[in-house]
Every structure is written in C-alpha cells, then in structure tokens.
UniProtKB/TrEMBL annotation:
Keywords: Carbohydrate metabolism, Glycosidase, Hydrolase, Polysaccharide degradation, Signal, Xylan degradation. It comes from Sphingomonas echinoides. The lineage of its organism: Bacteria, Pseudomonadati, Pseudomonadota, Alphaproteobacteria, Sphingomonadales. This is Glycoside hydrolase family 43 protein. Belongs to the glycosyl hydrolase 43 family. InterPro entries: Glyco_hydro_43, Glyco_hydro_beta-prop_sf, Glycosyl_Hydrlase_43_Enz. The keyword Hydrolase applies.
C-alpha cells in the first residue's frame, strides 16, 4: 500500500502541508489570529479522533466534502461519504494522508453521511467505529443514524465493514475508551441532526423533534455510555445515560445551552478521574465534566475550548511525548461550516486537575 507523503513546513510548532500556503488565511474574517494551523490542506477534515498505536499518532477524522446543500438544523450539509486516516510520528512532524479507508458504498446497511468516527485496537485488529444513516426513510426522507464497526489489520485501513450496524446502537459520534482493566466503553450520541431526542423513550420516534425536546426546565438529554463486549463489535448491555450534574449535584437542564450535552463525546482518564468531554453545539463550547466511574455521573467543570471559527466544534484528547494534546477543528481553510480542517494544540492542567481553558485565537 503506497501512501502519499506531502512535504511539511513548521508553523507555530505544528506541521502544515506545503500545498497552497499562499492561499491559507492567517487571520479569521473578524481579524483574530489563529492559535494553530491546519494539520493538512490537501483534503478537508473534521471531528479528529486521535490515538497512539505502536508509537505513532493516528487521527481518524471526518472527511468533509463540498456540496451545494444549504446549512440546516439536521446538518444535511455534512454530506461526507468516506474516511481517510492521518498519521504522524510526532506532534509537529509531517502528516501522511492515507487513501480511502472506508467508503459508504462498502457498508451494506448505510446510505449517507459518514460522520464523526473513532478507532480502537485490540489483539492485532484495528476497529473503526462510524455513524451513518441507514436505508430507512423518515419524515425528512432520511435514514436513521446507526453506529457501525469495520476492521483492519492496519491502522490506516482499508477497513471491512460488518454487514449490519452494531445491534442496539443509535444516534452518532461514537468514542471508544478502554480503561486500565481492559474493559472498553463506547460513548455516543448527539441531539438535533444526531437524532438523540427521537430516542427519548428507547425506540425511534419517526415524527419526533428535529432539534431537542423543548423542555428547558427538565434535565437535559444525555449522551450515552455502554460497555463493549470482548469482541469489540457488540454492546454488552443496554446503553446507559452519561449524566452530567452541576456543582450542587442536580442534572444540567435542557435550557442550559452553555453547559448541556449536544454531541462529540470523548473520554480520557487522568489521576484516577474520568474526564467526560463534549460539545455544546449551538453555543459552540467544548466542555468537560469529571467522575470516578466510567459510567458517570460526571460533575460539570467548565469550558476548555472557546468557540472556534465555524458552527461545529469536536475534538479528542491524548497524551503523548509527556504532554497532553487537544485535536480540534475549525474552518480556517474555507470559512464554510461544512468544510473544516483539523488542528492540534497543547492542553494543560492546573494542579487541582482542572483544565486550563484554551482560546483558539491568539490575543
Ligand atoms: O461532522 C458531522 C457532525 O458535525 C459530527 O458528527 C458532529 O460531531 C459535528 O462535528
């Protein structure tokens, strides 16, 4: 398998591909200067799920594509149909863009919208988890989001999809966390276009809301957490609620858009604490909450990334080379919500374990 390695230049300590340097704006339309530069410029990428496998860094992003579909609350403009994997030896080093690792045409059950993926490794096999709409049709003429799994002997793929989505899966944005005891958990879900609000009663409501439950004084919809079976291809139980509590121990309410869960779960463990991180969607923050159990509940701690350029914000956090890193995305290359580019910046903690908030623009 041959991969194309494109020359890199160093900007702000982060590798940037040498293509089209003269066309990359160094300031946002409002004049603010970016904190970091796109990891790659040869394709549009978003929703970066980073992992260290056998000493190398792999990023499993969404592969954004141009479309004439206008922006809407369902996210129809995010019309992605395949995945490409990014690889680098170290943060700041050259980035390899892999070939197509999985295309929707190779997934028997899926129809469209290959959204934010994640990956895991176990016993010589790499697992790619991905959401996509199935072939059913709802009131909007669209399929229901399910979560699929595909496998490969290489972290770059190509991946072979299982014939059916994971039984019991729904909604989107899978993120798989493996604890020190070897047990793996999938965190998933997203409201609005991610359809979580249509699953409130455990089955899909085809006529449900396209946004949320419109119950601002009730506990917010939560992301989901479920333990994976040892085969890494199936759920060991019915998904549970990943509850986020405020400092008084009360659930965050649906109307609290600065703090409630919207999409983009990611979990990591540090100092014995589980950090449950997520996006607030329409208020554009990346938030975190901590707990002492992978199932939660998690106590809300704050924002750790202020709004980026673009509507969505989605991320992953890894530790490598003795430092913690935040992979995120904005729209520096296109200034279009659906054509994003992934970035990386260092993440720092205070002595009490709280995260130092990051402004994606330099003061
Ligand atoms: O990339 C499509 C969707 O936008 C993702 O699944 C969400 O997390 C948001 O980033």
């Amino acid at each position: 398998m041959a991969y194309r390695v494109i020359g890199a230049v160093m900007m702000c300590g982060v590798a940037t591909l040498a293509l089209a340097q003269d066309r990359i704006p160094d300031r946002a339309p409002d004049g603010r200067k970016y904190l970091s530069q796109p990891l790659v410029t040869s394709i549009y990428t978003a929703d970066p799920s980073a992992h260290v496998f056998a000493g190398k860094i792999y990023v499993y992003p969404s592969h954004d594509v141009p479309t004439a579909i206008p922006d809407d609350d369902l996210g129809n403009e995010y019309a992605m149909h395949d995945y490409r994997v990014l690889r680098m030896d170290r943060i700041g080093g050259p980035v390899t863009v892999g070939p197509v690792a999985l295309d929707v045409k190779q997934v028997p059950w899926a129809s469209q919208q290959m959204w934010a993926p994640d990956a895991a490794y176990k016993n010589g096999t790499y697992y790619l988890y991905f959401p996509a709409r199935d072939k059913a049709r709802d009131k909007n003429g669209l399929g229901t989001f399910r979560i699929g799994v595909a496998t490969s002997k290489s972290p770059m793929g190509p991946f072979k999809a299982e014939p059916k989505p994971i039984a019991g899966s729904f909604s989107m944005d899978p993120a798989v966390f493996t604890d020190q005891d070897g047990k793996s958990y999938m965190y998933f879900g997203g409201i609005w276009g991610g359809q979580l609000q249509r699953w409130k009663n455990g089955t899909f409501d085809p006529n449900g809301s396209d946004t949320d439950l419109h119950q601002d004084d009730q506990p917010a919809l939560t992301g989901k957490v479920v333990r994976m079976n040892a085969d890494m291809k199936s759920f060991a139980e019915t998904p549970r609620d990943a509850v986020i509590l405020d400092e008084q121990g009360k659930p965050i309410l649906g109307g609290d858009h600065d703090r409630r869960f919207f999409e983009a779960s990611w979990v990591f463990k540090r100092g014995g604490h589980y950090y449950y991180t997520y996006s607030t969607g329409d208020t554009h923050f990346l938030n975190y909450a901590t707990g002492t159990n992978p199932y939660g509940p998690f106590t809300y701690r704050g924002h750790f990334l202020l709004p980026v350029q673009g509507w969505t914000t989605h991320h992953s956090i890894i530790q490598t080379g003795g430092k913690w890193w935040l992979f995120y995305a904005d729209t520096q290359l296109s200034n279009k919500n659906h054509l994003r580019n992934v970035k990386v910046t260092e993440l720092s903690f205070n002595a009490d374990g709280t995260i130092k908030p990051i402004d994606p623009f330099v003061k």
